[in-house]
Amino acid sequence: MADNAARFGLDMTIQRQPMGFGYGEDVTGPMPEIRTLDQIRSSLRDPLCDGPEEVYAIAMDVARLQDREELKKRMLLFGVVTYAAGTLGAEPVRSQGHIHRISQHSGWSPPELYEIWQGKAIIYMQEYVADDPGRCFAVIAGPGEKVLVPPGWGHATISADAEQPLTFGAWCDREYGFEYDAVRAHKGLAWYPLVQDRQIIWQHNTHYSPARLQVITPRPYREFGITDAPIYQQFIDDPARFQFISRPDKTATLWLNFHP
Question: Distance between CA 257 and CA 234 in Å, rounded?
């Protein structure tokens, strides 16, 4: 698995049957939690749709053994997620729209940094989960590309290619938690992704005020010190690099007028 260690920053493999992950000798991680179609129906545009029975697998707190204490000290957590191929009715396979619960240790709704490992992703995000969603972005990313979701924004991770699985890693706050109520009250986020002729098209959710959707590609986040290396390797090289994830208050000025 040495090649995967170079690609991902830590020694692990992606498994399909059953869906999940394999960990190298120096890597620790939990058994993945499987999200089934029945569990996420309430968040879908068509709750009665057909799709893969097992939609995605998620493993939170994956780490090299020698990094665990440093991660706990810095209140950081690394998660990995893999999606099934296919669609959920007319929708692509995706996560449930949510915002991050405010962390007690920082007093902020924490940001999240994604890195795509396999497949093609759209990280959809909107400024607010109120009637006026504010600015809305769909960031299209491929293997090795990074996408940063700022504090307090509603978001979802979407598979942009139904023909292949999607896998990604992400840096999160160790005190992570998901809030779904505001999104579910609006019957989802402000834009629904739909699959049409193997392409993603967007339909506005009329439970929100009219809003413009900007479809973009990832940019370098140089102001946060992020490089092109795998994001776990960047932590190994500089454990303080991702402190802005667990302590976004320390970089408060960088979140003002943030553009993905």
Answer: 26
3-state secondary structure 58-74: EEECCEEHHHHHHHHHC
Tokens of 151: 């504090």
Q: Is the dihedral of CA 27, 30, 31, 37 positive or negative?
A: negative
Task: Please state, in angstroms and rounded to a whole number, the distance separating the CA atoms of residues 183 and 154.
Answer: 8
pLDDT (0 to 100) of residue 3? 62
* In contact, 121 and 166? CB cutoff 8 Å: yes
Q: Regarding the domain delimited by 2-255, which CATH topology (the fold level of the hierarchy) does it fall under?
A: Jelly Rolls (2.60.120)
CA angle, 115 as apex, 19 and 52 as ends, to 5°? 30
Determine the pLDDT at residue 4.
Answer: 74
Using CA atoms, how far apart are residues 232 and 62, in angstroms rounded to an integer?
10
pLDDT in tens, 53-103: 999 999 999 999 999 999 999 999 999 999 999 999 999 999 888 999 999
Structure tokens at 172: 């999160």
Contacts of 46 (CB under 8 A, 6+ apart): 88, 89, 90, 91
pTM: 0.95
pLDDT at 14 over 60: yes
| 203-231 average pLDDT score | 97
